[in-house]
Amino acid sequence: MEKEQIKALREQVMPALVCKKEEFQMLGYEQVTIDEIWDCLFYKKWKKLKEEKKLFEIVNDILTLSVNEYMTYITVQSHQETNWFNDDNLEALQELF
Question: Which InterPro entries does the entry mention (predicted)?
Fold first, then answer.
């Protein structure tokens, strides 16, 4: 899929993304964003697609995304993004040793 197609698809399913965001917020996950939900689905659930999904399948994936799947994705992302050897974290590491 090309960037323009992905952007158009995201706009097309925006009501489902907003609905999922509001659901998570009602469950107490106030920090959730539509971008994070989309990335979770795009990079986790849809990353190994061999064929294009139909619109109803994409909407179903959005609406059935569980808090557990989302939180697992966010946790893994945060661990991958943490750079323990930058200046701020280097001081903390030196204090440990």
Answer: Post-transcriptional_regulator (IPR025716)
